[in-house]
Amino acid sequence: MNNHPPQREETSAAILELRGLSLRFGGIDALSKVSFPVAPGSITALIGPNGAGKTSLFNCISGFYKPFAGDILFKGQSITRLAPPQRAKLGLARSFQNIALFRGLTVLDNIKLGRHSHMRSNLLDGLIYRGKAQREEEALTAEIEEKIIGILDIGHIRDESVANLPYGLRKRVELARALAMRPQVLLLDEPVAGMNHEETKDIARFILDIRKEWGVTVLMVEHDMGMVMDISDHVVVLSFGKLIAEGKPEQIQRNPDVISAYLGTDAAGQLAPAPAAEEGA
Question: Which of 64, 67, 69, 160 could lock onto 59 through a cystine, CB 3.0 to 4.6 A?
């Protein structure tokens, strides 16, 4: 592996930027001086072998972990010291690798919970449920049904209990709840983990639709290399907590450091470019 820093393309002003981010657990470096920008309106994929530090990096961005050193900037302002709810209010939303929905609530109620940090009515308004609270609740329901349930094609299950849904639909509901936060940057932690081929294609299409319709910037951790190479504008590669490469998908596919990092894993073969589909197939 060479010791030269990864080549970085010139991009427009970053909406999210990591500068020298380091994280330690005891004497172990989970992240070591990780720096990269996320361009506004882009789909950026964060990849790497198991244990590379991808989820630790997401936890730092979300505010669940406090980095040992470095800085996280959102729209040019440091958010490193902000608590997770404050980051959510600014426009950072996240889905989780392990589904974290309230199984006893309906799909619609789970989605509404995503807007909690943005609600303006106070506790007394909510207890009385009239006036400001009622108007806000009605407006929220209308917005969710028009802009979120429609784009994710889950109108047929809006009143179903989450506990009764198959895995693929529950993943959609979690994505919907993140969208209810009105994010400017959407952090997706393995959005297609455990899904079959058709479900993966659906989620990939939804992500592209969300970016197109809402202008949302997406940063995702994902092991499905086919999906990563298909929909990403930019790919960042971690290995043992260090950034070893970043660039366009076609550059990452040919990068010798990335190929070396993936040797011996199931994902290694998927880094090769997929054969072109025949016209009319």
Answer: 64
Residue 244: both structure tokens together: 């070893």
- Go through the domains of the chain in sequence order and give each one's CATH number: 1-91+183-275 (3.40.50.300), 103-166 (no CATH)
Per-residue pLDDT of the chain (281 residues; tens, 9 = 90+): 444 444 444 445 899 999 999 999 988 999 999 999 999 999 999 999 988 999 999 999 999 999 999 999 999 999 999 999 999 999 999 987 767 788 889 999 888 887 765 545 444 444 455 556 677 667 777 778 778 998 999 999 999 999 999 999 999 999 999 998 889 999 999 999 989 999 999 999 999 999 999 999 999 999 999 999 999 999 999 999 999 999 999 999 989 999 988 865 555 456 655 544 443 43
Q: What would the two tokens of residue 67 be?
A: 């980095």
Cα angle 36, 176, 142 (rounded to 5 degrees) comes to 130
Q: Give every CB contact of residue 26 below 8 A, 6+ residues apart in sequence.
A: none
Token pair, residue 47, equals: 């990849």
Identity of the amino acid at 239: S
